[in-house]
């Protein structure tokens, strides 16, 4: 990585998806990660508190905008409609301007929820939730051809279920993915050398940790990340640029799944569809989602191809009829008062919000209180420990009346799932670990205090701190604050008042839903994504 120096008006965001603070703290101190150790010695660092729930589609937009989900508009992987259907969230659902709308030229590489790519001064390569490299996943369009020529093996993601029983092959595939991402970063830096913002995310650590939670293997993967960091530090030194190394959330081992919709069903808040009709008849005949998709594969059709070729209404109808594992189509909504969707988002089935609502809006607070008591009373039958944490949606998302009513997540060691099954707890299968709230934030640059500790940093604080460090105004809508602990005492950012400016809220572009194809499938094929 090399180029000409243009001064201290640049910022480089190196995103490391899913990296927990405790790993960086421990392994930078014991010699495992020498570049992270130098980053901490020569800059400011500390834990970074994520969103609730601590998931990729909520947290990265909060990092890039400086606002919580109720303002940027994304609450999970899939947006729920009043008709109980859902579609994948896209970049067009993010209503607040991101950093690359405020700083140009910009490089935006592999950042989750950047599909479809924005047209901006610079380069964009769509990240997680981009359908595939067969779509228009870059800006400019010609960049896709450059990537194909320079990195012919480049792909958006892996087919993770293929590796559930072969972790050796999975580790090799992750290494290849990491190498391709590193090559992409070099390509983007070469083609846009005059960038003012570079925002590039490596998602490999998150993907690796979901299936592998072995310390020796994790250390080896983190050494590869440390090597990338060393190159980025040298590159930003040459350009006198500020470097921000951040993760959207942390990670921790999980041992038990908690089926929250089962708990609602047992308590009488959710009613399962009966087995009459098409769905029940097909189930009795042994026709399931797995059998259907296996047949499709034998004739050369993927779930993705089917879901994106058929009209939306037909896909919904088929998905509703084929027995599967998604809670949405297993619920009898005219008989249900509450249900959980996506990453622990609970919705009260009220008559104003939903087509088949059963709850008077005036009764929503009382029902939320009842359900909170229910979830907080659930204990592990072996340890007798409480397994769930519940948060009020009105407190988490105060500016949006359409936000989830509650968020229910597992305590450490537990993870919530939405499938309607016949038991409250389950085995994690091939999943070894999952998200926790505490990620990382490390800063280094001309005005950054050496050896400083960042206290109370949150994902929404990254953007205001970065902008203020470049002497740029912070959006008046920002929920985050400038982390003055990061700056040297007598530096301009530390001695300058934060300037504010009004920004325009972006309008939703609903056309994306019609054109959206192939994102971890729109409806994850016929079974929908949990």
From TrEMBL:
- Give any Pfam family that matches: Phosphodiest
- Could you tell me what this protein is called? Type I phosphodiesterase/nucleotide pyrophosphatase
Q: Which domain of life is it from?
A: Archaea
PANTHER family named in the record: BIS(5'-ADENOSYL)-TRIPHOSPHATASE, ECTONUCLEOTIDE PYROPHOSPHATASE/PHOSPHODIESTERASE
Checking SUPFAM superfamilies in the record gives: Alkaline phosphatase-like (SSF53649)
InterPro entries, per the entry: Alkaline_phosphatase_core_sf, Phosphodiest/P_Trfase
Which GO terms fall under molecular function for this chain's record? hydrolase activity
């Amino acid at each position: 990585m090399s180029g000409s120096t243009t001064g201290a008006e640049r910022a480089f965001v190196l995103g490391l998806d899913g990296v927990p603070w405790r790993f960086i703290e421990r392994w930078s101190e014991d010699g495992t990660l020498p570049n992270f150790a130098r980053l901490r010695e020569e800059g400011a660092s500390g834990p970074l508190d994520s969103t609730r729930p601590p998931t990729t589609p909520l947290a990265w937009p909060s990092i890039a905008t400086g606002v919580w989900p109720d303002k940027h508009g994304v609450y999970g992987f899939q947006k729920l409609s009043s008709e109980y259907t859902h579609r994948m969230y896209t970049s067009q659902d993010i209503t607040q301007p991101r950093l690359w709308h405020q700083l140009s030229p910009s490089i935006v590489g592999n950042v989750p929820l950047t599909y479809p790519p924005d047209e901006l001064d610079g380069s964009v390569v769509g990240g997680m939730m981009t359908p595939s490299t067969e779509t228009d996943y870059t800006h400019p369009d010609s960049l896709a051809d450059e990537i194909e020529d320079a990195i012919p093996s480049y792909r958006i993601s892996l087919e993770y279920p293929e590796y559930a029983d072969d972790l050796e092959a999975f580790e090799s595939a992750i290494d290849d993915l990491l190498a391709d991402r590193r090559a992409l970063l070099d390509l983007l830096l070469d083609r846009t050398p005059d960038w003012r913002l570079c925002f590039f995310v490596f998602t490999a650590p998150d993907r690796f940790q979901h299936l592998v939670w072995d310390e020796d293997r994790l250390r080896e993967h983190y050494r590869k990340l440390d090597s990338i960091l060393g190159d980025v530090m040298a590159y930003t030194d040459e350009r006198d640029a500020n470097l921000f190394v951040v993760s959207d959330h942390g990670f921790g081992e999980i041992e038990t799944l908690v089926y929250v919709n089962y708990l609602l069903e047992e308590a009488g808040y959710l009613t399962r569809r009966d087995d009459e009709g098409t769905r029940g008849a097909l189930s009795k005949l042994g026709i399931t989602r797995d059998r259907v998709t296996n047949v499709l594969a034998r004739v050369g059709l993927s779930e993705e191809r089917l879901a994106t070729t058929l009209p939306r209404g037909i896909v919904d109808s088929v998905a509703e009829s084929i027995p599967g594992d998604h809670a949405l189509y297993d619920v009898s909504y005219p008989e249900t008062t509450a249900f959980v969707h996506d990453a622990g988002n609970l919705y009260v089935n009220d008559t104003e919000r939903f087509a088949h609502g059963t709850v008077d809006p005036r009764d929503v607070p009382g029902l939320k209180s009842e359900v909170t008591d229910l979830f907080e009373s659930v204990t592990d039958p072996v340890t007798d420990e409480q397994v769930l944490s519940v948060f009020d949606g009105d407190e988490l998302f105060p500016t949006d009346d359409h936000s989830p009513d509650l968020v229910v997540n597992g305590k450490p060691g537990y993870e919530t799932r939405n499938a309607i099954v016949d038991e409250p707890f389950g085995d994690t299968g091939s999943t070894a670990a999952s998200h926790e709230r505490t990620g990382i934030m490390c800063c280094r640059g001309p005005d950054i205090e050496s050896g400083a500790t960042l206290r109370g940093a949150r994902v929404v604080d990254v953007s205001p701190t970065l902008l203020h460090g470049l002497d740029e105004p912070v959006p008046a809508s920002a929920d985050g604050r400038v982390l003055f602990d990061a700056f040297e005492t007598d530096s301009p950012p530390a001695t300058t008042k934060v300037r504010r400016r009004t920004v325009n809220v972006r309008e939703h572009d609903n056309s994306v839903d019609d054109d959206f194809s192939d994102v971890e499938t729109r409806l994850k094929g016929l079974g929908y994504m949990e």
